[in-house]
Amino acid sequence: MKPELILQQDVSLQSLNSFGIKANAHRFLRIDNLTQLQALRAHIVADVELATLPRLVLGGGSNVILSDHLPHLVIQMAIMGRELVGETSDHFIVRSGAGENWHAFVQWTLEQGYGGLENLSLIPGTVGASPIQNIGAYGLEIQDCFHSLTAFDFVTGELKTFQKQECDFGYRDSIFKSGEQNRFVIVDVCFALPKQWLPRLNYGDVAKYLLERDITAPTPIDVSNAIIAIRQSKLPDPAVIGNAGSFFKNPVVSAELRNQIFQQHPNCVSYPQTNGEFKLAAGWLIEQCGWKGYRCKTVGVYEKQALVLVNLGGATGIDVRALAQEIQDDVLKKFGVGLEVEPVFV
């Protein structure tokens, strides 16, 4: 084994998942550079026991709900670096290592004068995880500003560049989540940020924040500040209260079902889609079922946002799954709408 490859045993992952669940990894490796990934693959090929272990790649741990003990090889991606790597007539192309903190990277792009990612400010996690989930908020998704990414292929041992069309982006989904999650490990991500920047102010809270401060010609930093303030007012800080952010996807339903719900609940929050369907606000549905602010011994629903489940102390993956299922059952019974969980249970 190469000296830079230090595989640890029975490692605590409590500080590496934003829900703060006490969990241990059977084997654990922090990856700081590509050479270590290549050495790891060679070691897996040569070690029968290691080859049989399921792999789990961790970034910021903000989109996973862990079991108490993981019989896995857990790989923490910590490859750093951020730089301008090119330009086109319309865009700046910036690249970030997979291990960079997402929010810190967004703030760095703004400091360099590159607008385009500001609506995704303060989202927890790492850059490498952002395309896996196709993260999105306030009218913007990763796919809207994505250029390409580099991934390490554990099957061939080679690097592969993925262009946007190859990532199969969907709503909080990509090929790396639903198709090739066990084969590729993202090493770095490139974004195309517009030279002719225009603010995305489709959400009323953002426009209201700017209007209240007499900001009529907002800059990317102004929009970022608005997003940060709004998120801080509604969402708990994982460093203070363990959580995985938005726990359920906003469901997309037929116009017929949306209209049925609207007849009984005229204040139903919904957004028309281009195909004639409607996206419903999952948080609103959950709140109507009385879950907002719910608390039990170890888990609860955040009092300011029904879309967020929180760790009240000592929560296990089983506790979280049970509460999520109760909420899903209630929403289905009351509205006929199935809620899909965003985080991955491991």
From TrEMBL:
Biological pathway: Cell wall biogenesis; peptidoglycan biosynthesis
Keywords carried by this UniProt record: Cell cycle, Cell division, Cell shape, Cell wall biogenesis/degradation, Cytoplasm, FAD, Flavoprotein, NADP, Oxidoreductase, Peptidoglycan synthesis
The EC number(s) this enzyme carries: 1.3.1.98
Record domain FAD-binding PCMH-type: where: 21-196
MF-aspect GO terms: UDP-N-acetylmuramate dehydrogenase activity
Main location: cytoplasm
Catalytic site: R172, S246 (proton donor), E342
Annotated function: Cell wall formation.
UniProt family annotation: Belongs to the MurB family.
Name by which UniProt lists this protein: UDP-N-acetylenolpyruvoylglucosamine reductase
Species per Swiss-Prot/TrEMBL record: Undibacterium seohonense
